[in-house]
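so my prof wants the structure for this chain in the tokens format not the other one, which i didnt know existed until like an hour ago. anyway here's the sequence
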Amino acid sequence: MTDTPVKQQNTGAYYGQAVLSFGLALAAISIGIYRLDADAWVRGFLAIAVLYLTTSAFTLAKVIRDRQEAGQIVSRVDQARLEKILAEHGPFQKL
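here's what i got, hopefully its the right format
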């Protein structure tokens, strides 16, 4: 049995929903910070914290994706090696 990973492709609607959701969340937090009844330095600190959290989330998502893709590549290489060995030394080959 082979463990071939299925290539998943997101639809345009899913991609659009993700982008729209991110934009709405960022706009909502920006408006919330702007309208907050606090000093400018407090609003500035919160804005920088939101930007830091956002960039950290993107970095984490990229690291997780890269690790997953690396695991799939190793799995494919191991599978190719096994298939080569089985093809060369198959039990059903004529002697």
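also thought this was worth mentioning. Residues 8 and 76 are 16 Å apart (CA to CA).
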